[in-house]
Design a protein that fits this description.
Dehydroquinate synthase-like, alpha domain; 6-stranded parallel β-sheet; binds fe (ii) ion; alpha/beta; 3-stranded antiparallel β-sheet; 9 strands; Rossmann fold; binds nicotinamide-adenine-dinucleotide
């Protein structure tokens, strides 16, 4: 039977990062390995984190060798940094990439073994690791929900597959809107569409439960109401605060898995390096359109959450309006509408390879709203070109 657990202690509010040091000290931790990326460091986001640790006498070292769509060698580099520094706990600071890399470090450093590849679900020899170093997660984007999710997404650079690493739910998530206040607009846009994708995929997922739907419902409402403002409105700070919490709530909704949008977008990012939220934003409307009739009753429920007046509307019509609304939002926040856009670079000749990758690399299709054949997946990719 399904189960639902809220297992992450979640601290939130303007300035709450100041509590990091005392919270770590209270748990008895002495030395943090901060896992992050160069963009976070350059944005000055580490300053308040280090100041809080310093204030409580908690030592810290920094590993900032993470890139978007983080890879197995990047995780292994972090494990080596953990060993060299003598750190006893991990703090992931950044978007999903840095937090996922931190999760990988926390698992591999605790489990031992030569390489984190051993712990990849679907590719490793130990797909259900059962030990991890203590882990704090501090998101600086409003999208992935990685700070409360049980999985990390790690790319194998040999196959380009994005694999899941499981059993790595953080102990503590710290959501401080001050840390995301200066997030560049294109990152706000892409990560916000990732969060919307989580909530919609969770809502229509056949494994959904009353609990996951409760979170998905609230997340869809909040993201629909605040994402445009967060990207380019006059009240950016207020809207970004809503988005930070909404992305976390969307993360709570995805515990029963995601669907074909993520299954297909992971291949695009694994092969072409496309930002995760951009690939999802392009594919979301296409997957919903492809399964429009099948999903009509559920999209009728989603329509008002997105601000569509669906009163008295037939389900089929509401389902079309939801697709149109997703496209309008994506266009307004200036995300490309096609995978063939030069910034993404997918070609028609890529389709067969990408479908093959999607079918071979994904545990994620288990939760797809409707079973899809290779022909279906190819048709969805082609519709997005
Ligand atoms: N574990 C999960 O549950 C889960 C869920 C969804 C996605 N993901 C994964 O998360 C990754 C994507 O994460 P993301 O979309 O958050 O982006 P990201 O972590 O890849 O970051 C993108 C860029 O934004 C910069 N950045 C982040 N925050 C900033 C800020 N506040 N100010 C300035 N620059 C900032 C980073 O330096 C980086 O260059 C993908 O690998 C995806 O597969 C994981
Ligand atoms: Fe995602």
């Amino acid at each position: 039977m399904p189960s639902f657990a809220l297992s992450v202690e979640t601290v939130f509010g303007d300035g709450c990062i100041a509590e990091l040091g005392q919270r770590a000290k209270a748990k008895g931790y002495k030395h943090a390995l901060i896992v992050t990326d160069p963009g976070i460091k350059a944005a000055g986001i580490l300053d308040s984190i280090m100041a809080s640790l310093d204030e409580q006498g908690v030592a810290h070292s920094v590993y900032d060798n993470v890139t978007p769509n983080p890879t197995v060698p990047e995780v292994d580099g972090g494990v080596a940094a953990m060993k060299d520094s003598g750190a006893d706990f991990v703090i992931g600071v950044g978007g999903g990439s840095a937090i996922d890399a931190a999760k990988g470090v926390a698992i591999t450093a605790a489990m031992g073994g030569e390489t984190s590849k051993m712990y990849l679900f679907g590719a490793g020899t130990v797909p259900f690791p059962n030990q991890r170093k203590p882990l704090f997660a501090i998101p600086t984007t409003c999208g992935t929900g990685s700070e409360i999710s049980p999985a990390a997404v790690i790319t194998d650079p040999e196959t380009h597959y994005k694999h899941l690493m499981l059993n790595c739910t953080p102990d503590v998530a710290i959501l401080d809107p001050n840390l995301v206040a200066k997030m560049p607009a294109p990152i706000t846009a892409a990560t916000g569409m990732d969060a919307l994708t989580h909530a919609i995929e969770a809502y229509v997922n056949p494994g959904n439960t009353p609990f996951t739907r409760m979170f998905a419902t609230r997340a869809i409402q909040q993201i629909s109401a605040h994402l445009r403002q967060a990207v380019n409105g006059p009240d950016r700070p207020g809207a970004i605060r809503h988005m930070l919490y909404a992305a976390d709530i969307a993360g709570q909704s995805m515990s029963q898995g995601l669907g074909q949008v993520h299954g297909l977008s992971h291949v695009v990012s694994g092969r072409l390096g496309t930002a995760h939220g951009v690939a999802n934003a392009i594919l979301l409307s296409q997957v919903l359109e492809y399964h429009n009739e099948f999903l009509a009753d559920q999209l009728l429920e989603i329509a008002p959450l997105m601000g569509i007046n669906a009163h008295g509307m037939a389900a089929k019509q509401a389902a079309k309006e939801v697709v149109a609304q997703v496209r309008a939002l994506r266009d307004e926040i200036k995300i490309p509408s096609k995978l063939s856009d030069p910034s993404v670079g997918m070609k028609e000749s890529d389709v067969a390879q990408f479908v093959d990758d999607a079918q071979k690399s994904q545990g994620i299709f288990i939760a797809a709203p409707k079973a899809a054949t290779a022909e279906d997946l190819a048709a969805i990719y082609k519709s997005a070109l």
